[in-house]
Structure formats: structure tokens, C-alpha cells
Design brief:
With 128 residues, the protein is an alpha/beta fold. It is built from five helices and five strands; from the N terminus they run E-H-E-H-E-H-E-H-E-H. It has a five-stranded parallel beta sheet, sandwiched between helices. Helix 2 (34-44) runs parallel beside helix 3 (60-69). The longest helix has 13 residues, at 11-23. Bound molecules: manganese (II) ion (MN). Residues 9-10, 52, 54-55 line the site of manganese (II) ion.
Length: 128
């Protein structure tokens, strides 16, 4: 079981992400603003962070920068969840310090595959 911090302001997306994580046998830690995400990354030391980019207050890019700038959270892998995919976005996300990104709308299979890759040693739960 891994601890995964989900930073997401949209209730439906948060529900879906947590449902997928729990189905895969992981524990979801929830944050609904960038500021809260930055604080919980340092406090909770999750194994992975799923970071929405469009958030109230500081956006996901700024939150990623702050997480990377704090030595207690600097090494935690981050996957950005982004709803816009204009040219240059990928570069901006990677420059801010994220390890990968997933485009919205959230596809459960894509999320599970990415989580399987990112959480080494964990495979998606088998269909039952
Ligand atoms: Mn959002």
C-alpha cells in the first residue's frame, strides 16, 4: 500500500481519483487547494502526488515549484493532472518539476496505468 496525495478542487475528480486509488489498494490523502497540497506534502511525506493544475489560490504549477523548493518534499514524485494541452504546457510542467502528466478528462485506465508505472513495485489490481 502506498500513500498518494491528491490535490484536486473538483469534487467529482477527487472522488474518482480516490476511488481508483482505493481500488488499487492505496491510501488517498486529500487536499483541495495548492497551499494545502504544499503543506501536506511536507507533513505527510506521501509516496506520490497527483497535482491538478487549475486550482483556487496558487495554481498547480506554483504548488509543484514550492514542493520542489522544500527539502522535506523535494524528492516526492509528482504527476500533474492538466485539462489543457497547448504546445509548451508539457515543457512548463516538466520545468516546474513534475515527473509526468495526465490530461483531463480523467480516464480510469490511463490513471491506473500511470499509477502502476509511478508506484514501482505495485501493479494495478487484477479484475475480479
Ligand atoms: Mn481544478
Amino acid at each position: 500500500m502506498k500513500n498518494v496525495l491528491v490535490v484536486e478542487d473538483n469534487e467529482r475528480n477527487m472522488y474518482l481519483m480516490c476511488y481508483i486509488l482505493e481500488k488499487m489498494g492505496h491510501r488517498a490523502i486529500k487536499a483541495v487547494t495548492g497551499e494545502e497540497g504544499v503543506a501536506m506534502a511536507a507533513e505527510q511525506q506521501p509516496d506520490l502526488i497527483l497535482m491538478d493544475i487549475q486550482l483556487p489560490g496558487i495554481d498547480g504549477l506554483e504548488a509543484i515549484r514550492r514542493i520542489r523548493a522544500d527539502r522535506t518534499s523535494a524528492a516526492i514524485p509528482i504527476i500533474a493532472i492538466t485539462s489543457y494541452a497547448m504546445s509548451g504546457d508539457r515543457e512548463r510542467l516538466l520545468a516546474a518539476g513534475c515527473n509526468g502528466y495526465i490530461e483531463k478528462p480523467i480516464n480510469p485506465e490511463t490513471i491506473m496505468a500511470e499509477l502502476g508505472r509511478s508506484l514501482s513495485g505495485t501493479a494495478p489490481a487484477a479484475d475480479t
